[in-house]
Amino acid sequence: MNEQSEGQTMAAIQMDLYRDWIDTVKEVFRGSGHPLPAGLSDSEAALAYFMQTAKDEEEAQSLSVQNEDRLKELQSVILTNFESVILPDIRSRTGYTGSDFVFKWIYNKGEHIIEQHSSYRIPL
Predict the structure, then answer these.
(1) What are the DSSP calls for 82-113, one per residue?
(2) CA 61 to chain centre
């Protein structure tokens, strides 16, 4: 996925921040005792989440689209800046020397993106 200088191995990056967020939403509903119906689409799950606080369905739909766009943009920024900014920061902060990277969106006292192999964390 990312080109590197001759003699270096290519980085393998796995990331689907929106999927991570959707999975978390489903887990929150499951944990609340009100699981979402099986087979619900991602957009339906997101809408159900935002209906909890939105004044109406139109606002919930707008918040859902904005959130999906935001997470996809964050993913794009990470990929675009991986070689020049993120990889050097991972190496210097964590000492991780591998070439496999798995980025995940998590919520833990705020939103974060973590890289699982190195425990690198990007607070949002």
Answers:
(1) IIIIIHHHHHHHH----SEEEEEEEESSSEEE
(2) 20
Mean per-residue pLDDT, 5-9: 45
Q: Are strands 120-123 and 111-115 parallel, antiparallel or unpaired?
A: antiparallel
Q: Which long-range contacts (CB under 8 A, 24 or more apart) does 61-69 make?
A: 67/21, 68/18
Q: What is the pLDDT of residues 93-122, one digit of tens each?
A: 999 999 999 999 999 999 999 999 999 999
pLDDT of residue 9: 55
- Phi-psi category of residue 95: left, alpha or beta, with phi > 0 → left and psi -120 to 50 → alpha: left
Q: How far apart, in whole angstroms, are the C-alpha atoms of residue 83 and residue 70?
A: 21
Strand arrangement, sheet containing 100-107: 12-15, 100-107, 111-115, 120-123
